[in-house]
Amino acid sequence: MKRKIITTADGSKTIQIEEWNEQYHSVHGSINEAIHVYIKHGLLFYYTEFHNAQNPISVLEVGFGTGLNAILSLKESEALNIMVDYTGVEAYPVSHSELEQLNYIEALNLDAAIFNVLHEVPWETKQQITNNFLLTKQQKTFDKISESERYDVIYYDAFGARVQPELWTEEMFEKMFKTLKPDGVLVTYSAKGSVKRALTSVGFEIERLKGPPGKRHMLRAIKR
């Protein structure tokens, strides 16, 4: 499918799949959405409410994509001086030419070398990116996620139910529930009623929160 780079409302870029009219991030601001949904209400919420300082925070990202959520998590790990063990799952990695057209390095005032390393390190092996950030990239479809009580936080950043409804089912969220540790947290930009019902049906405790710019609500789910 044809993909193109577009500029979102906060000036940051993302990838659009034209056939689906679907983007990797919100057209209302890719960086703003990522910070609001995944960092503020995911990583930082878990850190504040549940984190044991003796353990790393293990994060699973369902949809590694452009690496935006990963680099924001890396920045947060450095700011807080906490260890983050990050796993990003992606079936169709972003190409080098697409990455070159994104502007996250400038928009976030990043060390270009660190951002490049995120995408250049080998897949399927754990890599130490900084003193506080470990990264494992796994190339596989999301239905192949099968770990049990492995993660503290899940960033559920799959394409929307309009174009990939199979990723927003009870069956898929059962996998997510199983792979989280007790008190684990799943966050997603979606607040659809069908998503909320699917999460609730597999055992999650649901919170509907104020959404990022351009969206009324988002969801946070906790495994009690």
Structure summary:
This protein is α/β, with parallel strands linked by helices and 224 residues long. It contains 7 helices and 11 strands. The mean pLDDT is 96.
Overall mean pLDDT stands at: 96
Any idea what the radius of gyration is? 16 Å
Count of DSSP H/I helices = 7
Q: What is the N-to-C order of secondary-structure elements (H for helix, E for strand)?
A: EEEHEHEHHHEEEHEHEE
CATH-defined architecture? 3-Layer(aba) Sandwich
Strand order of the largest sheet: 6-7-5-4-8-9-11-10
Termini separation comes to 40 Å
Low-confidence stretches: none
Largest sheet: 8 strands, mixed
- The figure for the number of domains is 1
Strand coverage percent: 25-35%
**CATH first level: which class?**
Alpha Beta
Total strands: 11
Q: What structural class do you assign from the helix and strand content? A: alpha/beta
CATH superfamily: Vaccinia Virus protein VP39
Task: Note down, in words, how this protein is organized.
The chain has 224 residues and is of the alpha/beta class. The protein has a single domain, classed as Rossmann fold (3-Layer(aba) Sandwich), CATH 3.40.50.150. 32% of the residues lie in helices and 27% in strands. It is built from seven helices and eleven strands. An eight-stranded mixed beta sheet has the order 6-7-5-4-8-9-11-10, with helices on both faces. Strand 4, helix 2 and strand 5 form a beta-alpha-beta unit. Helix 1 crosses helix 2 (68-80). The longest helix is centred in the N-terminal third of the chain and has 20 residues, at 30-49. The model has no long low-confidence stretch (mean pLDDT 96).
